[in-house]
Amino acid sequence: MQHLTDTNEAASAAEPAPRVGTTLNQEAYRRLEEMIVTLDLAPGSLVSESILSRQLGIGTTPIREALQRLAREYLVEIIPRRGVVVTTIDVRRQFEVLETRRELDRLLSAAAAKRSSVSERTSFTDNLVLTQKAVANNDVREFLRLDAELNQLLSKAARNSTAAALASMLHTVSRRFWFYHHDEHTTLAEIGPIHCHLVESIASGDPALAGAASNQLIDYLVEFAQATLPHRHSLG
User: Which fold has domain 6-86?
Assistant: First the structure.
């Protein structure tokens, strides 16, 4: 089992300043979630609240609350008297997550297309433009940040807090699985157009189109997960 050391501090030094309007709890969660998704905190790592607090420049209370939220999202496991362990990558859980996401994401995408305000549709369009740029530049980390932003936009625009809360527990698991297995030279070119089509469909205000685009994205992610199975490699 790996342990978090101060060597990770250099990796976090380039982190952007906290976003305007965010609380320390939100900022702690955002930073830790990104570190886990992009494997700066590797699966199996034993993490320390105090080191994370010093590394991110955020107090231990927001760090603790962020870790508790991440535990509910299957990304860390809190072990009494031992600490917090980053969970391993599990393809079986990914299939369960995608099966559940298919229903929730289709609901949220269609609802957001139907219920979003003019300003919210503008936000979706802005997200689309930046995502297209990230895909063109093959900037995987920026693509993942914009995906997380899209989920926040969906959560608000869909006007369904119950579905949004459930979906938010699943998206980070999917992002980490994708990042862990992706080929940086090809995969973003594959998923990018499918993802952008979803954002464009939501911004169009057409619920049926948005729901279909959501299904298309999940179809791709299921095929991607299937390709990681050992027997699929042996057949190749």
Answer: Arc Repressor Mutant, subunit A (1.10.10)
